[in-house]
Write a structure and sequence with these properties.
globular; 12 helices; TIM Barrel; four-stranded parallel beta sheet; alpha/beta
Length: about 425
């Protein structure tokens, strides 16, 4: 589809000549044909004119889950990638929490083919161990050759220290990136929320910050010994920020992310026992939240993720202790971030992370493949359950006010714009 984006304000900090300028953008056969003050096109081009249209380089989310294969009732690949595209995300890393988990090259190929050209571009994360059982390494090299961008037993810590050591050593042979989830299960025990005043008041088992920080300390010691590339997903404590800051000062090749909800909410929202707020790692204190926000601003934390995790209603509408972890996040991300960080910083955060996963970035310039996020940064918008495009509706952002709205994306020759 050939389209002309009329009077779009371009936000691209890497292109000083266009940053902040209002331009027409003609996209022809999946590439940016022309950028100008007033661009004339051919008769086959669709004119797109949207109120206060802003355009940036495409957004990336480094932790997205759907369901297929195995949990299609939560979300299929085809609908999930459309949800991501309508939410402004052109590229997503797909978590290996399916049944079976993707632990072979064939599994990676299946995921890429099934999701291809249906919405946001998918970059699968392969399972670190066979069956995600934490015993033997999976086919890391073969999965890498087939398109896996990293390796991770989703939300399952590597309890065997020697296994993490071997994984980091082995992955260096092909520049592989190893994920290690920050949780010491022996300390976390049967906890389901942050250990503190709220857990005590509600009578819920607590997960202390120590459970995260002691695991990160161990991982960083191993990384210092082995070398290699380590990514610590979704940190949640002030202590974790300090540990990673010190590791980076020492020159260790470590990166980390923070989940959107840990930047927005604290454990004080748990008073109503709403299971949509049950996430892993748990919501922490206001002190932790401020440390995470500061870590983003200073660059200690490398990227934001929505940690989007659809869960069907049967696993959420039960007692809090028994409910599954996870919340939706893709459809609310821009508005809530924009209300906290402001538009330019929000776009900076949403476009970060590609280099870490060797994902090419498409610039906003003539001749480049079209990879654009479309949005309006002004106005108030509230997340409504009935408007969620995700199959599952387990969003902690329902009723949450955000600033601005997302129109959609242009991905190659695909055009996804919300009808409303």
């Amino acid at each position: 589809m050939n389209i002309l984006l009329k009077s779009a304000k371009i936000l691209d900090e890497n292109n000083k000549g266009l940053h902040g300028k209002v331009r027409d953008i003609w996209i022809k056969n999946g590439s940016i044909e022309k950028i100008g003050v007033s661009v004339k096109t051919d008769s086959k081009t669709k004119i797109v004119s949207l109120p206060n249209l802003h355009v940036s380089r495409g957004w990336l989310d480094s932790s997205v889950s759907f369901g297929e294969p195995g949990y299609e009732e939560r979300e299929t690949l085809s609908n999930g990638v459309k949800v991501a595209a309508f939410s402004g995300f052109t590229d997503i890393l797909l978590n290996p929490n399916t049944h079976p988990v993707p632990d072979t090259s064939g599994d990676i190929i299946f995921l890429k083919k099934t999701a291809a050209e249906k919405g946001a571009r998918v970059y699968p994360i392969g399972s670190l161990t066979r069956g995600a059982e934490g015993v033997d390494l999976a086919e890391l090299y073969d999965m890498s050759k087939s398109g896996a961008v990293a390796f991770y037993d989703f939300k399952s810590p590597v309890t065997n220290s020697n296994l993490l050591k071997i994984a980091l050593q082995y992955a260096q042979g092909f520049n592989g990136l190893v994920f290690s989830f920050p949780l010491d299960v022996s300390i976390a025990g049967n906890g389901s929320v942050h250990e503190g005043n709220t857990s005590t008041k509600l009578g819920l088992g607590g997960i202390p910050a120590l459970a995260e920080e002691i695991q990160i300390s161990r991982d960083l010691f191993i990384l210092e010994y082995t070398g290699g590339k380590l990514h610590i997903p979704t940190i949640s404590t002030a202590g974790a920020v300090n540990l990673i800051a010190n590791a980076k000062k020492k020159g260790l090749n470590v990166s980390c992310s923070v989940a959107l909800h840990n930047l927005i909410f604290t454990d004080e929202v748990l008073d109503e026992f709403d299971t949509n707020f049950k996430v892993m790692p748990p919501l922490r204190t206001s002190k932790d939240r401020e440390a995470l926000r500061k870590g983003l601003r200073t660059g200690v934390i490398d990227m934001i993720t929505t940690d989007h995790l659809p869960i069907d209603i049967e696993e959420k509408r039960i007692e809090f202790d028994r409910a599954a972890y996870g919340s939706l996040g893709l459809e609310s991300a821009f508005g809530v971030l924009n209300s906290i960080f402001g538009t330019e910083q929000t776009i900076h955060l949403l476009t970060k992370g590609r280099d870490r996963f060797n994902i090419p970035a498409a610039d906003i310039k003539e001749g480049e493949v079209a990879c654009l996020s479309l949005f309006n940064p002004v106005g108030d918008q509230q997340t409504e359950k009935k408007e969620l495009k995700s199959t599952s509706k387990n969003s902690m952002y329902i009723g949450k006010q955000g600033k601005g709205c997302v129109y959609g994306t242009v991905i190659d020759d695909q055009f996804f714009v919300n009808p409303d």
